[in-house]
Structures are given as C-alpha cells and as structure tokens.
Task: structure prediction
Amino acid sequence: MLSFAEFDTLVEPVLVRRGCDSVAGGDCHGGGIQGTFRLSPPGAKNAQLDYDQSSLQVSISPRTASRLLTKPLAVAAGGTPHGGGEFFSTTSDPDYQAILKWINDGVVQ
Result:
C-alpha cells in the first residue's frame, strides 16, 4: 500500500517543484487529461487526486519501471521519452530518489 502521508511530504513537492501540475503551453498534466496522468492545477490543489493519479503510474515489479520514474528520467539514464522533457539526468537525482523511496516504502509490504 502506497502511503498518502509520504506522498504528500515526498512526492507532491517534487511534482509541484518540477512544474508537472502546470498548464503552461498545454503540455503538462495540470487541470486536463494529458495521456493517462492528470494532476490538479496549481490554483486548485487536490492532494488526494494527485495521489490517486500518481499511484496509477507505479509498477510493482520492477519498481524502477514505474512511469512516475521513467518518464521524467533522461533516456540516456534508462528513462522513456517524455513530452515535458527530462527532469532527472540520473537515478541519483534527489527528486528521483524521493519518488523511488515512496514507491519502495509502499511496495515492501
């Protein structure tokens, strides 16, 4: 079970800091359905919606194959192409590690 509390303290700040909830240019996930991952927009944050949507992007095995990790990761580092660009150049990026921690902590059960 993925922790909502841990999502709220570890993952939601990463999504906001990286602009994933932005509607700028229509390329991001805020306020509208862009692919299969929708986040609440900055002016109307809904942490439960963001948690639910983020949880759908998590793979149990292998955990590192979770779209929440691979889409923003540089292709050269094992990521997959992402229309919003690369946010993590390596898997050692602190934001990547925060999301991975949330996934690992929830999947360990």
User: Anything to note?
Assistant: Residues 4-107 form one domain. The first helix runs from residue 4 to 17. The two ends are 7 Å apart (CA to CA). The chain has a mean pLDDT of 85.
